[in-house]
Amino acid sequence: MLYGKPSDEENKYLSPIFGSSAEGRDIPKFKLNDTPIEPREAYELVSDELLDEGNSRLNLATFCQTYMEPEAEKLMAQSFEKNAIDKSEYPRTADIENRCVNIIANLWHAPSEEKFMGTSTIGSSEACMLGGMAMKFNWRKNAQKHGLDTNAKKPNLVISSGYQVCWEKFCVYWDVELRTVPMDANHLSLDLDKVMDYVDDYTIGIVGILGITYSGRYDDIAGLNKLVEVHNQNTDFPVYIHVDAASGGFYTPFMEADLKWDFRLKNVISINASGHKYGLVYPGVGWVLWRDKQFLPEELVFKVSYLGGELPTMAINFSHSASQLIGQYYNFIRYGYQGYKAIHTRTHEVAAYLTQELRETGLFSIVNDGAQLPVICYSQIPDKTHEWTLYDLSDRLLMKGWQVPSYPLPADLSQTVVQRIVVRADFGMNMAVDFVQDLKSAIDELNNAHIVFHESEKPKRYGFTH
Ligand SMILES: *Cc1c(COP(=O)(O)O)cnc(C)c1O
Protein backbone atom coordinates (compact mmCIF):
# COMPACT_ATOMS: atom_id res chain seq x y z
CA MET A 1 0.00 0.00 0.00
CA LEU A 2 1.48 3.31 -1.10
CA TYR A 3 -0.03 5.84 1.28
CA GLY A 4 -0.77 3.68 4.29
CA LYS A 5 0.42 4.01 7.86
CA PRO A 6 4.22 3.56 7.97
CA SER A 7 5.43 0.20 9.25
CA ASP A 8 7.68 0.01 12.32
CA GLU A 9 10.66 -0.45 10.05
CA GLU A 10 9.74 2.66 8.05
CA ASN A 11 9.11 4.57 11.24
CA LYS A 12 12.68 4.00 12.25
CA TYR A 13 13.88 5.77 9.13
CA LEU A 14 11.37 8.58 9.40
CA SER A 15 12.08 9.46 12.99
CA PRO A 16 14.00 12.70 13.54
CA ILE A 17 17.69 11.98 14.06
CA PHE A 18 17.73 13.32 17.61
CA GLY A 19 14.68 11.21 18.35
CA SER A 20 16.45 8.05 17.17
CA SER A 21 17.53 5.19 19.39
CA ALA A 22 21.22 5.67 18.52
CA GLU A 23 21.13 9.17 19.98
CA GLY A 24 19.37 7.86 23.05
CA ARG A 25 22.09 5.51 24.24
CA ASP A 26 25.82 5.49 24.76
CA ILE A 27 27.44 3.60 21.86
CA PRO A 28 30.35 1.47 23.13
CA LYS A 29 33.67 3.14 22.34
CA PHE A 30 36.17 0.39 22.98
CA LYS A 31 34.35 -2.64 21.61
CA LEU A 32 32.05 -3.18 18.67
CA ASN A 33 28.38 -2.52 19.17
CA ASP A 34 26.44 -5.71 18.74
CA THR A 35 24.02 -4.58 16.06
CA PRO A 36 24.34 -2.12 13.16
CA ILE A 37 23.02 1.41 13.39
CA GLU A 38 21.61 3.42 10.51
CA PRO A 39 24.13 5.22 8.27
CA ARG A 40 22.63 8.66 8.98
CA GLU A 41 22.83 7.99 12.72
CA ALA A 42 26.40 6.74 12.45
CA TYR A 43 27.26 9.81 10.41
CA GLU A 44 25.75 12.17 12.96
CA LEU A 45 27.43 10.40 15.88
CA VAL A 46 30.89 10.50 14.35
CA SER A 47 30.60 14.01 13.02
CA ASP A 48 29.34 15.25 16.41
CA GLU A 49 32.26 13.52 18.04
CA LEU A 50 34.59 15.64 15.90
CA LEU A 51 32.77 18.93 16.54
CA ASP A 52 35.19 20.31 19.08
CA GLU A 53 38.29 19.18 17.21
CA GLY A 54 40.68 21.99 16.27
CA ASN A 55 39.78 23.76 13.04
CA SER A 56 42.52 22.82 10.57
CA ARG A 57 42.42 26.14 8.74
CA LEU A 58 43.19 27.92 12.04
CA ASN A 59 45.97 25.47 12.83
CA LEU A 60 49.09 27.59 12.36
CA ALA A 61 51.26 24.77 13.69
CA THR A 62 51.15 22.49 10.69
CA PHE A 63 53.04 22.53 7.42
CA CYS A 64 50.46 20.18 5.92
CA GLN A 65 47.91 21.36 3.42
CA THR A 66 44.47 22.22 4.73
CA TYR A 67 42.83 23.37 1.51
CA MET A 68 42.46 22.02 -2.01
CA GLU A 69 40.24 23.22 -4.82
CA PRO A 70 36.82 21.55 -5.14
CA GLU A 71 37.82 20.07 -8.51
CA ALA A 72 40.88 18.47 -6.90
CA GLU A 73 38.73 17.10 -4.07
CA LYS A 74 36.31 15.67 -6.60
CA LEU A 75 39.09 13.93 -8.51
CA MET A 76 40.58 12.60 -5.31
CA ALA A 77 37.22 11.30 -4.10
CA GLN A 78 36.84 9.55 -7.46
CA SER A 79 40.09 7.65 -6.88
CA PHE A 80 39.89 6.76 -3.16
CA GLU A 81 39.34 3.11 -3.98
CA LYS A 82 42.22 2.75 -6.42
CA ASN A 83 45.30 1.11 -4.99
CA ALA A 84 48.29 2.97 -6.39
CA ILE A 85 50.50 -0.11 -6.10
CA ASP A 86 48.35 -2.09 -8.57
CA LYS A 87 50.25 -0.65 -11.46
CA SER A 88 49.03 -3.17 -14.00
CA GLU A 89 45.37 -2.63 -13.06
CA TYR A 90 45.73 1.14 -13.02
CA PRO A 91 48.35 1.91 -15.65
CA ARG A 92 47.15 5.50 -16.03
CA THR A 93 47.78 6.17 -12.37
CA ALA A 94 51.23 4.61 -12.70
CA ASP A 95 51.83 6.85 -15.67
CA ILE A 96 50.71 9.90 -13.70
CA GLU A 97 53.14 9.04 -10.90
CA ASN A 98 55.87 8.73 -13.48
CA ARG A 99 55.00 12.12 -14.97
CA CYS A 100 55.12 13.67 -11.48
CA VAL A 101 58.61 12.22 -10.90
CA ASN A 102 59.72 13.76 -14.20
CA ILE A 103 58.16 17.13 -13.37
CA ILE A 104 59.93 17.16 -10.00
CA ALA A 105 63.27 16.04 -11.51
CA ASN A 106 63.00 18.99 -13.87
CA LEU A 107 62.12 21.35 -11.02
CA TRP A 108 65.17 20.15 -9.06
CA HIS A 109 67.50 20.32 -12.07
CA ALA A 110 68.35 16.63 -12.45
CA PRO A 111 71.20 16.70 -15.00
CA SER A 112 70.16 15.39 -18.40
CA GLU A 113 73.37 13.35 -18.78
CA GLU A 114 72.51 11.30 -15.69
CA LYS A 115 69.59 8.93 -15.26
CA PHE A 116 67.42 10.05 -12.36
CA MET A 117 65.18 7.69 -10.43
CA GLY A 118 62.35 8.54 -8.09
CA THR A 119 59.16 7.42 -6.44
CA SER A 120 56.17 8.73 -4.58
CA THR A 121 55.87 7.84 -0.90
CA ILE A 122 53.37 8.42 1.89
CA GLY A 123 55.32 11.47 3.00
CA SER A 124 58.83 12.70 3.63
CA SER A 125 59.37 10.23 6.46
CA GLU A 126 59.14 7.24 4.13
CA ALA A 127 61.14 9.18 1.54
CA CYS A 128 63.91 9.85 4.10
CA MET A 129 64.02 6.15 5.05
CA LEU A 130 64.64 5.32 1.41
CA GLY A 131 67.24 8.06 0.94
CA GLY A 132 69.00 6.94 4.12
CA MET A 133 68.93 3.25 3.19
CA ALA A 134 70.36 3.95 -0.24
CA MET A 135 73.24 5.84 1.41
CA LYS A 136 73.82 3.02 3.88
CA PHE A 137 73.90 0.32 1.19
CA ASN A 138 76.24 2.37 -0.99
CA TRP A 139 78.55 3.11 1.91
CA ARG A 140 78.75 -0.61 2.82
CA LYS A 141 79.53 -1.63 -0.75
CA ASN A 142 82.32 0.93 -0.99
CA ALA A 143 83.65 0.16 2.50
CA GLN A 144 83.90 -3.54 1.69
CA LYS A 145 85.62 -2.77 -1.59
CA HIS A 146 88.29 -0.82 0.29
CA GLY A 147 88.72 -3.38 3.02
CA LEU A 148 87.17 -1.38 5.88
CA ASP A 149 85.96 -3.61 8.73
CA THR A 150 82.24 -2.78 8.53
CA ASN A 151 81.53 -4.64 11.77
CA ALA A 152 84.07 -2.73 13.83
CA LYS A 153 81.83 0.30 14.27
CA LYS A 154 78.28 1.37 13.57
CA PRO A 155 77.95 3.44 10.43
CA ASN A 156 76.88 7.02 11.14
CA LEU A 157 74.77 9.78 9.61
CA VAL A 158 75.72 13.43 10.06
CA ILE A 159 72.98 16.07 10.43
CA SER A 160 72.37 19.26 12.42
CA SER A 161 70.62 19.00 15.77
CA GLY A 162 67.62 20.67 14.09
CA TYR A 163 66.72 17.34 12.44
CA GLN A 164 63.14 16.17 12.12
CA VAL A 165 62.26 13.03 14.11
CA CYS A 166 62.16 10.85 10.97
CA TRP A 167 66.00 10.82 10.96
CA GLU A 168 66.08 9.55 14.51
CA LYS A 169 63.67 6.83 13.42
CA PHE A 170 65.80 6.00 10.41
CA CYS A 171 68.87 5.59 12.61
CA VAL A 172 67.05 3.41 15.14
CA TYR A 173 65.30 1.23 12.55
CA TRP A 174 68.40 0.67 10.45
CA ASP A 175 71.01 0.62 13.19
CA VAL A 176 72.92 3.74 12.27
CA GLU A 177 74.52 6.21 14.67
CA LEU A 178 72.87 9.64 14.53
CA ARG A 179 75.71 12.19 14.70
CA THR A 180 74.30 15.61 15.36
CA VAL A 181 76.19 18.82 14.77
CA PRO A 182 75.08 21.18 17.54
CA MET A 183 73.39 24.46 16.72
CA ASP A 184 74.05 27.51 18.85
CA ALA A 185 72.88 31.11 18.99
CA ASN A 186 75.17 31.98 16.07
CA HIS A 187 74.42 28.86 14.07
CA LEU A 188 70.71 28.31 13.80
CA SER A 189 71.27 25.81 11.00
CA LEU A 190 74.05 23.35 10.06
CA ASP A 191 77.37 24.70 11.39
CA LEU A 192 79.74 24.54 8.40
CA ASP A 193 82.78 25.22 10.60
CA LYS A 194 82.19 22.02 12.47
CA VAL A 195 80.29 19.63 10.22
CA MET A 196 83.29 17.90 8.63
CA ASP A 197 84.73 17.13 12.09
CA TYR A 198 81.85 14.70 12.48
CA VAL A 199 82.63 12.82 9.26
CA ASP A 200 84.79 9.70 9.24
CA ASP A 201 85.18 6.51 7.18
CA TYR A 202 81.98 5.15 8.71
CA THR A 203 79.83 8.10 7.60
CA ILE A 204 77.10 6.99 5.21
CA GLY A 205 76.21 10.56 4.28
CA ILE A 206 75.38 14.07 5.41
CA VAL A 207 71.84 15.39 5.47
CA GLY A 208 71.25 19.05 4.67
CA ILE A 209 67.87 20.44 5.68
CA LEU A 210 66.01 22.86 3.42
CA GLY A 211 63.72 24.22 6.02
CA ILE A 212 64.49 23.25 9.62
CA THR A 213 61.21 22.18 11.16
CA TYR A 214 61.78 24.07 14.41
CA SER A 215 62.66 27.45 12.93
CA GLY A 216 62.17 27.43 9.16
CA ARG A 217 65.86 28.21 8.54
CA TYR A 218 67.79 26.71 5.60
CA ASP A 219 71.07 24.86 5.86
CA ASP A 220 73.73 26.27 3.52
CA ILE A 221 73.70 23.34 1.09
CA ALA A 222 75.97 25.04 -1.47
CA GLY A 223 78.56 25.68 1.24
CA LEU A 224 78.26 22.08 2.39
CA ASN A 225 78.71 20.88 -1.19
CA LYS A 226 82.07 22.70 -1.35
CA LEU A 227 83.29 21.14 1.89
CA VAL A 228 82.26 17.70 0.69
CA GLU A 229 83.99 18.28 -2.65
CA VAL A 230 87.28 18.97 -0.87
CA HIS A 231 86.84 16.04 1.51
CA ASN A 232 86.13 13.59 -1.29
CA GLN A 233 89.32 14.44 -3.15
CA ASN A 234 91.52 12.83 -0.53
CA THR A 235 89.68 9.73 0.56
CA ASP A 236 88.58 6.27 -0.51
CA PHE A 237 85.43 6.86 1.50
CA PRO A 238 83.59 9.73 -0.18
CA VAL A 239 80.46 11.11 1.47
CA TYR A 240 77.48 12.56 -0.33
CA ILE A 241 74.60 14.82 0.56
CA HIS A 242 70.94 13.97 0.90
CA VAL A 243 68.76 17.08 1.10
CA ASP A 244 65.74 16.85 3.37
CA ALA A 245 63.62 19.40 1.50
CA ALA A 246 60.35 18.28 3.11
CA SER A 247 59.07 21.84 3.15
CA GLY A 248 61.52 23.74 0.91
CA GLY A 249 61.44 21.33 -2.03
CA PHE A 250 58.21 22.71 -3.42
CA TYR A 251 58.77 26.28 -2.27
CA THR A 252 62.34 27.35 -3.03
CA PRO A 253 62.24 26.45 -6.77
CA PHE A 254 59.49 29.02 -7.22
CA MET A 255 60.60 31.68 -4.76
CA GLU A 256 64.40 31.60 -5.02
CA ALA A 257 65.00 29.93 -8.36
CA ASP A 258 68.67 30.97 -8.32
CA LEU A 259 69.43 29.46 -4.92
CA LYS A 260 71.51 26.33 -5.55
CA TRP A 261 70.51 23.60 -3.15
CA ASP A 262 69.43 20.80 -5.52
CA PHE A 263 70.94 18.56 -8.20
CA ARG A 264 72.83 21.55 -9.62
CA LEU A 265 75.23 20.77 -6.77
CA LYS A 266 77.40 17.83 -7.74
CA ASN A 267 77.44 16.08 -4.37
CA VAL A 268 73.71 16.25 -3.75
CA ILE A 269 72.70 12.73 -4.70
CA SER A 270 69.16 12.48 -3.37
CA ILE A 271 66.36 14.79 -2.28
CA ASN A 272 63.04 14.27 -0.55
CA ALA A 273 60.04 16.59 -0.28
CA SER A 274 56.50 16.39 1.07
CA GLY A 275 53.85 16.83 -1.61
CA HIS A 276 51.49 17.59 1.26
CA LYS A 277 53.49 20.59 2.47
CA TYR A 278 54.21 23.29 -0.15
CA GLY A 279 53.32 20.83 -2.93
CA LEU A 280 49.79 21.83 -1.83
CA VAL A 281 48.21 18.34 -1.60
CA TYR A 282 46.25 16.95 1.37
CA PRO A 283 48.32 14.72 3.73
CA GLY A 284 49.57 11.44 2.31
CA VAL A 285 52.14 12.13 -0.41
CA GLY A 286 55.91 12.59 -0.49
CA TRP A 287 58.66 12.18 -3.03
CA VAL A 288 62.26 11.02 -3.16
CA LEU A 289 64.55 11.32 -6.15
CA TRP A 290 68.12 10.20 -6.85
CA ARG A 291 70.15 12.17 -9.36
CA ASP A 292 71.39 8.97 -10.99
CA LYS A 293 70.51 5.32 -10.72
CA GLN A 294 74.06 4.53 -9.52
CA PHE A 295 73.09 6.07 -6.17
CA LEU A 296 70.07 3.82 -5.73
CA PRO A 297 71.38 0.32 -4.97
CA GLU A 298 69.71 -2.39 -7.02
CA GLU A 299 68.82 -4.37 -3.88
CA LEU A 300 66.34 -1.62 -2.99
CA VAL A 301 64.50 -1.82 -6.29
CA PHE A 302 61.89 -4.52 -6.62
CA LYS A 303 60.33 -5.55 -9.90
CA VAL A 304 56.59 -5.61 -10.39
CA SER A 305 55.25 -6.89 -13.68
CA TYR A 306 53.50 -4.14 -15.52
CA LEU A 307 51.51 -4.60 -18.68
CA GLY A 308 53.92 -7.24 -19.91
CA GLY A 309 56.94 -5.15 -18.97
CA GLU A 310 58.68 -4.63 -15.66
CA LEU A 311 58.21 -1.57 -13.52
CA PRO A 312 60.58 -0.96 -10.63
CA THR A 313 59.15 -0.16 -7.21
CA MET A 314 61.21 1.02 -4.29
CA ALA A 315 58.73 2.28 -1.71
CA ILE A 316 58.47 0.74 1.77
CA ASN A 317 54.68 0.85 1.89
CA PHE A 318 52.70 -1.32 -0.47
CA SER A 319 48.98 -0.56 -0.66
CA HIS A 320 47.79 3.02 -0.55
CA SER A 321 45.16 5.08 -2.30
CA ALA A 322 45.91 6.70 -5.65
CA SER A 323 44.06 9.87 -4.53
CA GLN A 324 47.10 11.78 -3.38
CA LEU A 325 49.00 11.11 -6.61
CA ILE A 326 46.01 12.27 -8.62
CA GLY A 327 45.76 15.36 -6.40
CA GLN A 328 49.46 16.12 -6.89
CA TYR A 329 49.17 15.81 -10.65
CA TYR A 330 46.03 17.98 -10.66
CA ASN A 331 47.97 20.72 -8.84
CA PHE A 332 50.92 20.45 -11.22
CA ILE A 333 48.83 20.91 -14.35
CA ARG A 334 46.34 23.29 -12.77
CA TYR A 335 48.88 25.74 -11.32
CA GLY A 336 51.92 25.30 -13.52
CA TYR A 337 55.11 27.10 -12.55
CA GLN A 338 53.54 30.56 -12.48
CA GLY A 339 50.55 29.40 -10.44
CA TYR A 340 52.72 27.89 -7.68
CA LYS A 341 54.83 31.02 -7.74
CA ALA A 342 51.77 33.28 -7.37
CA ILE A 343 50.41 31.27 -4.44
CA HIS A 344 53.76 31.11 -2.66
CA THR A 345 54.42 34.81 -3.31
CA ARG A 346 51.20 35.69 -1.53
CA THR A 347 52.05 33.32 1.31
CA HIS A 348 55.43 35.02 1.56
CA GLU A 349 53.79 38.46 1.76
CA VAL A 350 51.52 37.31 4.57
CA ALA A 351 54.58 36.04 6.44
CA ALA A 352 56.29 39.42 5.98
CA TYR A 353 53.19 41.22 7.26
CA LEU A 354 52.96 39.02 10.36
CA THR A 355 56.66 39.46 11.12
CA GLN A 356 56.26 43.23 10.87
CA GLU A 357 53.27 43.20 13.23
CA LEU A 358 55.05 40.94 15.72
CA ARG A 359 58.10 43.20 15.66
CA GLU A 360 55.98 46.28 16.25
CA THR A 361 54.61 44.90 19.48
CA GLY A 362 58.15 45.30 20.86
CA LEU A 363 57.66 42.09 22.82
CA PHE A 364 59.31 39.51 20.59
CA SER A 365 62.73 38.74 19.28
CA ILE A 366 62.45 37.27 15.79
CA VAL A 367 64.35 33.98 15.31
CA ASN A 368 63.14 33.45 11.74
CA ASP A 369 61.42 36.22 9.82
CA GLY A 370 59.85 34.16 7.03
CA ALA A 371 62.08 35.70 4.36
CA GLN A 372 62.85 32.22 3.01
CA LEU A 373 60.38 29.57 4.15
CA PRO A 374 57.22 31.43 5.27
CA VAL A 375 57.66 30.28 8.85
CA ILE A 376 57.87 32.86 11.58
CA CYS A 377 59.57 31.89 14.75
CA TYR A 378 60.05 34.21 17.72
CA SER A 379 60.97 34.23 21.34
CA GLN A 380 59.87 36.60 24.05
CA ILE A 381 62.18 39.50 24.87
CA PRO A 382 62.95 38.91 28.55
CA ASP A 383 61.25 41.53 30.62
CA LYS A 384 60.62 41.28 34.32
CA THR A 385 57.40 43.25 34.05
CA HIS A 386 55.82 40.45 32.05
CA GLU A 387 53.48 38.31 33.99
CA TRP A 388 53.01 35.87 31.14
CA THR A 389 54.94 33.52 28.85
CA LEU A 390 54.60 32.32 25.28
CA TYR A 391 52.78 29.27 26.64
CA ASP A 392 50.17 31.58 28.14
CA LEU A 393 49.87 33.38 24.82
CA SER A 394 49.34 30.04 23.04
CA ASP A 395 46.53 29.25 25.50
CA ARG A 396 44.91 32.64 24.94
CA LEU A 397 45.07 32.30 21.16
CA LEU A 398 43.56 28.82 21.41
CA MET A 399 40.56 30.34 23.18
CA LYS A 400 40.02 32.34 19.99
CA GLY A 401 40.41 29.19 17.87
CA TRP A 402 44.03 29.72 16.70
CA GLN A 403 46.53 26.96 17.27
CA VAL A 404 49.99 28.45 17.63
CA PRO A 405 52.51 26.19 19.37
CA SER A 406 55.22 27.22 21.83
CA TYR A 407 58.15 24.90 22.44
CA PRO A 408 61.85 24.93 23.30
CA LEU A 409 64.37 24.90 20.42
CA PRO A 410 66.28 21.59 19.99
CA ALA A 411 69.33 20.39 21.91
CA ASP A 412 71.95 23.00 22.79
CA LEU A 413 69.40 25.79 22.32
CA SER A 414 66.68 24.32 24.48
CA GLN A 415 66.84 27.21 26.93
CA THR A 416 65.13 29.32 24.25
CA VAL A 417 61.38 28.91 24.05
CA VAL A 418 59.84 29.97 20.77
CA GLN A 419 56.44 30.32 19.23
CA ARG A 420 56.03 29.38 15.58
CA ILE A 421 53.57 30.35 12.87
CA VAL A 422 53.63 28.33 9.65
CA VAL A 423 52.01 30.41 6.91
CA ARG A 424 50.27 28.21 4.36
CA ALA A 425 48.60 28.82 1.01
CA ASP A 426 45.13 28.99 2.56
CA PHE A 427 46.12 31.66 5.10
CA GLY A 428 45.24 34.80 3.17
CA MET A 429 45.84 38.42 4.11
CA ASN A 430 42.29 38.80 5.45
CA MET A 431 42.75 35.92 7.81
CA ALA A 432 46.15 37.30 8.79
CA VAL A 433 44.61 40.67 9.68
CA ASP A 434 42.00 38.88 11.81
CA PHE A 435 44.76 36.89 13.46
CA VAL A 436 46.75 40.01 14.32
CA GLN A 437 43.66 41.55 15.91
CA ASP A 438 43.17 38.43 18.01
CA LEU A 439 46.86 38.34 18.88
CA LYS A 440 46.76 41.94 20.07
CA SER A 441 43.70 41.40 22.19
CA ALA A 442 45.21 38.22 23.61
CA ILE A 443 48.26 40.24 24.65
CA ASP A 444 46.05 42.96 26.15
CA GLU A 445 44.10 40.38 28.10
CA LEU A 446 47.30 38.83 29.42
CA ASN A 447 48.74 42.23 30.35
CA ASN A 448 45.59 43.10 32.25
CA ALA A 449 44.90 39.73 33.77
CA HIS A 450 46.64 40.37 37.11
CA ILE A 451 46.76 36.65 37.65
CA VAL A 452 48.69 35.87 40.78
CA PHE A 453 50.57 32.61 40.56
CA HIS A 454 51.84 30.87 43.59
CA GLU A 455 55.57 31.54 43.87
CA SER A 456 56.39 27.82 43.60
CA GLU A 457 54.78 27.64 40.17
CA LYS A 458 56.94 30.35 38.74
CA PRO A 459 60.14 28.51 37.85
CA LYS A 460 58.12 26.02 35.82
CA ARG A 461 56.23 28.61 33.82
CA TYR A 462 58.76 31.44 33.73
CA GLY A 463 61.95 29.50 34.00
CA PHE A 464 63.53 30.15 30.62
CA THR A 465 66.08 32.69 29.65
CA HIS A 466 66.36 34.34 26.33
C1 LIG B 1 57.74 17.50 7.88
C2 LIG B 1 59.15 17.11 7.81
C3 LIG B 1 59.52 15.76 7.71
C4 LIG B 1 58.52 14.65 7.78
O1 LIG B 1 57.67 14.76 6.69
P1 LIG B 1 56.28 13.97 6.57
O2 LIG B 1 55.90 14.28 5.16
O3 LIG B 1 55.37 14.56 7.58
O4 LIG B 1 56.56 12.52 6.80
C5 LIG B 1 60.86 15.45 7.57
N1 LIG B 1 61.79 16.42 7.54
C6 LIG B 1 61.48 17.74 7.64
C7 LIG B 1 62.58 18.76 7.59
C8 LIG B 1 60.15 18.12 7.79
O5 LIG B 1 59.84 19.42 7.90
From TrEMBL:
Chain positions found as N6-(pyridoxal phosphate)lysine: 277
Region of interest (Disordered), ranges: 1-23
Taxonomic superkingdom: Bacteria
EC number, as in UniProt: 4.1.1.15
UniProt keyword Lyase present: yes
Gene3D superfamilies from the UniProt entry: 3.90.1150.160, 4.10.280.50, Type I PLP-dependent aspartate aminotransferase-like (Major domain) (3.40.640.10)
Basic and acidic residues composition-biased segments: 1-12
First-tier enzyme category under EC: lyase
Listed GO MF terms: aromatic-L-amino-acid decarboxylase activity; glutamate decarboxylase activity; pyridoxal phosphate binding
Keyword set, alphabetical order: Decarboxylase, Lyase, Pyridoxal phosphate
Gene Ontology BP terms: L-glutamate catabolic process
UniProt cofactor(s): pyridoxal 5'-phosphate
Catalysed transformations (reactions): L-glutamate + H(+) = 4-aminobutanoate + CO2
GO cellular component: cytosol
Function: Converts internalized glutamate to GABA and increases the internal pH. Involved in glutamate-dependent acid resistance.
Family of the protein in this entry: Belongs to the group II decarboxylase family.
Protein name, as recorded: Glutamate decarboxylase
Organism: Secundilactobacillus collinoides (Lactobacillus collinoides)
